[in-house]
Structure formats: C-alpha cells, structure tokens
## 1
Amino acid sequence: MSTFKFLFPSGTSMSRNLKDKYDNVNPRRAHTIMSAEDAASGRKSYWGELEITGSIRNVSPSLWQLTHLTSLYLNDNCLSRIPPDIAMLVNLRSLDLSKNKLRSLPAELGELINLRELLLSHNHLRVLPYELGKLFQLHVLGLQGNPLNKEILSLYGETNGTHKLLTYMLDSLTGKSFVETFFSR
C-alpha cells in the first residue's frame, strides 16, 4: 500500500484509520500544509517537501512538474529507474532515493545544482554518472550498500571522500585528470 505523508492541520476531519496512519510521521519531515485559517480564507497551499513510500514501482510523470519542491523522499520503494525529467526539480536540496532497486541513475541528476543531500544507499548501483561532479553544494552523499566499482568505493571511503569523489567525477566529465586537479590546489 502506498502512502503520501503529510501532517494535517488540527481540526481537519479524517477517518480514524487514516488519522492513525499519520500519527507516526517522522518529525523531521512533518509539515503543516496549510493552517486552518488559511484554508478557511481560500488560500492555496504551498509545500516544499514530499515523501512517497510503500513499494512504489513507478511515479507519475506529473511528479516532475512539482518544481517548488525542496525535498523529495522516494526511499523504501521498488523504483528501478528515475527518468531524466527529474532535472525539472531545480529547487531540490534533499533527495532520498535509498532502499530502491535502482541499477543506474540519469546523467540529468547533475543538473540539480542546489542539492545538498543525495541519499542513494541500498540500491543496485555499480557506477555513478560523471555529471554528479557538477553538484558543488552537495554535503551529504549516501552510497552505502551498493555494489559500486572499486574506484568509486576507494575514493568515497577516504577522508573527505564525498568531495574527492565529486572532484574525480567532474574531472572525468571535463577530461581533466584527478591527479592534475588534486595536486594543483
């Protein structure tokens, strides 16, 4: 069963079963979509975070049109691919694709230049697109539990591994050698 997780404003009526389902929302990701006063006044809702879980195999193409999103949590599903259209989510700062069945990632992920957190743990990834090297603001990169090639794992496992890995990927994308870049600093 699939779920969208939101924290509803107090006073919102819903069935007991539905209410119970939302009582255990992760507080880090719980947000009020709209206050009761705003809803009563006819205001439109604006929310920046969305979590979709529940063994989802595919997501609607309309998801990629939610360009206002700053955080997208698609973890704990059965996604086997992410379409290039993900690049339309230009405001994303946090993307969690962990615990899916991804074997590859679209190069277009490198266009999400506002990303600060990219969680890809526990998938089936062997390689990563070099375009990820363009994610200059990325501070957190979760890769644990993937059968990545030795070169990626070696760089990632070093001190400051995320930065070294992203530098290597950018250099590979531009044709510059990692050694050349690393020692020219």
Note: The longest helix spans residues 161-174.
## 2
Amino acid sequence: MTRNRRTRDEVDAGSWEQAETPRGSFQEIEQLTGQRFPLPYASIDELRARGFTGEELYAIVAPRRTLARRKERGEDLTVAESDRVLRIQHISGMADRVFGNHEKAQRWLRERSRVLNEVPLVLLQSETGARLVEEELHRIDYGIYV
C-alpha cells in the first residue's frame, strides 16, 4: 500500500493556514511574550545593551559564526535560539526585580552561587538550569535561605 503524499510546495498555502495549530503555537508564544517569534537578530543587540557580552551570548544562544551569519544575512533567529534569548531576558528581568538594581543583578548572575554550586549565567545554557536559577531567585525574593 502506497500513500499519496504531497510535498509542502504542492499543498495549497491556504490549507496550511487553516490547519489546526499545536497548543504551543508561535501565535500563543507571541501573545505571552509580546514579541514576534521567532525573534529578529536585533534581540541579540538588546541583550548586549543590557550588559551581556558576546562570549556569554555565544555560549548560551549560538556560536559566534552562526550569529554573525544571521546578522549578515538579516535572518531571524531559529526557534531554539529565540527560546534561549527569551530565557536570558526572563531571568535577567527577574534578577533585576529581585535585587532592585540592574548592576547587582548582573553581578549575581556572574558570581558562583553556593546554593546552585555554579555560576547562574552558566546554568542558563539549559532550560533545566534556568529553572534552578529561577527557583533560587524566588528563594532570595521571599527570604528563604538554604
């Protein structure tokens, strides 16, 4: 039995738009974050303006050459890269709020945490690490010391 499969190019574009989208669709992400998704390259520049170095961004978001290519070609970030940028934005904003000062928050993100046994910024390389950092920020915010 053979299936009659059509490529994406063969399918009418309108039918793709009418197709049911998954629960975690880009539209829902855009509504939650208030940002276009996937993110434009400019979001990298915004992180740099907030004090993140190129080396930090290359370690978390994407390699130097990949980001340079995206900038040169005017490409948006990939979904995975966009997710990492949102992760950094979220944790950075949360740290700013918890510490009440951007400089203190940036310093905390770069200093080894006794509780986490790691530098919080390094943990942002994974979603699991980011959750640990977020939990630690909640503990600090609520005065719960371990």
Note: Residues 25-141 form one domain.
## 3
Amino acid sequence: MRQVELDRIPLVESDEVCIEGSSTLMPPERAAELAEMFKALSDPTRVRLLAHIRSSEHGTACACHLPETLGISQPTLSHHLKKLVDAGLIVREQRGRWAHYTAVADALDVARGFLGEPIAASTSCC
C-alpha cells in the first residue's frame, strides 16, 4: 500500500474493494417495532414505572397505587401506561374497578437481546 499526495489530502491506494450492501440489514418492520419499544422507554417516568411493575411482589401492579408511588397525577399515569401498553412492554388486565399491569417478559427479552447483540465486525473496507 502506498500513499499519494493529492492537493495535500492523503490518498491511500489499496487492493481492497468496498462492496456496498454486503451486510445484512434488519427488515423495516422489525426496526419499527424496536424503535417503538425504545421510544416508549425514552421517558424517565416510563422507565421508573416499568421497573416498579417488574419488581412488584406478584409481578403485577394495581393502577390505584401507582400515582402516589411515583408522585404523578392519575392523568399523567394513564398517559405513560398507554405508551407502555402500545409498545407491548406491559399488558393491562381489568380486575373489578381497577386495572392491573404486568410486564411482558418476552418484550423485555427482545429489548435485552437487541442491546446485548455484538455489533458484527465488517469484513468490507467501509
């Protein structure tokens, strides 16, 4: 390999060829699902809420106790719970007058798996 000066910008000549599109791309639908999940987790209140639900004694939390526990109003709680339900991170079950929420283990495993995957080393030059 040799360097050639071109108007003071170093140019490196190489026999390696960059092949565009050689890596495997995630399907757009899958990327949208993951983005929605992580978007739901981009708010500190929702992260605290999910952590509280996951660590609850019976794996479920009643909405009746959550506003006081988190120090937020009922309408704010409803907004955040809806975002987590819509992202598939928790499920809602009506029990009489109150809704109970449970974390979806599979969804959390998907998020954990995605974050835990090593970034593949590129074999191409780019």
Note: The chain has a mean pLDDT of 83.
